[in-house]
Amino acid sequence: MPQDNIKALWFDKPLNDCVKLITTESGSDYFDAINLSNVVCELDGYLAEGGAKNIARRDGMGTTMMSATTFIGRTPDFYFQAVGSGTGAIAAWESNLRFIEDGRFGANKARLIVSQNKPFVPMYEAWRADSRAMLPYDAEQARKDAAEICAPVLSNRKPPYSLAGGLYDALKDTNGDILAVSNDEANAAKALFEETEGIDIYHAAAVATASLQQAVEKGMVKADDVVMLNITGGGEKRFHAEHEIHYLKPDHIFKIDFTKEEVERVLAEMR
Q1: What residues have CB less than 8 Å from 186, skipping those under 6 apart?
Q2: What's the pTM?
Q3: Are both 92 and 45 inside the same structural domain?
Q4: Residue 92, Cβ neighbours under 10 Å: how many?
């Protein structure tokens, strides 16, 4: 993971010494960490999990749509989620299609309304240009933008947006949209959610909440629409107040311009 985001990895008890953590240097972003993991997976003894292309991952993430639909008794009219890769929204779309095929929960196809955190909005920019291809995004500018957002988990520079069955296709099929949310809007939504629901939420979930507010204000969502808002994480503040928290320290920090030989040597030393 990126060194700057290490505080997002916390535990309620110490981990076994066999658990190792490697990070990319301060100033790097999630794409740099993903790039490092891709190099690791080229080495003997390591396997790539697959990300958005892993159907088991998507099926697991799609259970949120299944849970909401079976509870409501029908598929929702709208599905809101903040996205870094967009895999969760793709999974929700696929689950919705299965419900339609099943037939017991109606034939409604939920509109996917996903959101990104300004100024890191590459999918938003591509969607606004009606472009399947991601637009050019300078790596240094992307890292700078990623460092400015309050929800760094949403800063994937190479998401599964363009590929067949990816986010672009999901949005087109559902008449969906991508909205952009500022840090101030997300923080205001975060405070409002805690005030009204009684629990703190992560900044990524706050971005989604703020996007729902935008959609209501724009008249996109009506008062009688059935809305699913995916709160992708919360309760951290309360949990930290009630428990002793433990953090991992990196076993090695890689520069952005690491080599495969360096990665192979470092991992061999860790074994």
Answers
A1: 117, 150, 151, 203, 206, 207, 209, 210
A2: 0.94
A3: no
A4: 31
